[in-house]
Amino acid sequence: MVAGRFRALTLQQPFASALIFGPKRRDTRRFVPDMAAVGSWICIHVGRSSRQLKHRAPVSRIWPEVPERGTLMEHAGAVIGLARIAAIEDAKSEHVSSDPWTQVTQSGDHAWSP
After folding, report:
1. C-alpha–C-alpha distance, residues 66 and 60, integer Å
2. Is 2 contained in some domain?
3. Are 25 and 89 contacting, i.e. CB atoms less than 8 angstroms apart?
4. What is the pLDDT of residues 17-71, one digit of tens each?
5. In a domain, 104, yes or no
6. Contact 114/35 with Cβ under 8 angstroms?
7. By the 8 A CB rule, do 72 and 32 touch?
């Protein structure tokens, strides 16, 4: 058996948990994702920084069940799930830019959707 390789994407909390356990359905990036990645699996890794937790209040309007800060940070440094890349889109397109998650994060011009 040949061992497969997984790529990983690091997201800060609460966005990593929102993507795996909550209603977040796309992530935006400044870099152009590799179009060959569509259809492949990617590990979702939780970064160790807590600086993005400042977004917890706006996130709770979109995701009322967002876990508390301590619970979110219990997973720092760990892979919490896998996502299959279904599409890569222009983050400036109307359906992506109107997504409430895109409005909270505003982190890039390129979006991928699991």
Report:
1. 6
2. no
3. no
4. 999 999 998 888 888 777 778 888 999 999 999 988 888 888 999 999 999 999 9
5. yes
6. no
7. no
Instruction: Report the C-alpha gap between 102 and 24 in whole angstroms.
Output: 9
Q: What span, in angstroms and rounded, lies between the C-alpha atoms of 75 and 16?
A: 10
Pairing relation of β-strands 41-46 and 87-90?
A: unpaired
Domain count, the chain: 1
pLDDT given at position 78: 97
Total residue length of the chain: 114
CB-based contact 56:104 (threshold 8 Å): no
Provide the pLDDT confidence category of residue 3 given band limits of 50, 70 and 90: low
What is the residue-wise DSSP string for 51-102? GGGGGHHHHHHH-TTPPPHHHHHTTTTSEEEEEE--EEEETTSHHHHTSHHH
Is residue 1 included in any domain, yes or no? no
CATH number at residue 92: 2.30.130
**Residue 35 covered by a domain:** yes
- The answer to whether 56 and 102 have CB atoms below 8 angstroms apart is no
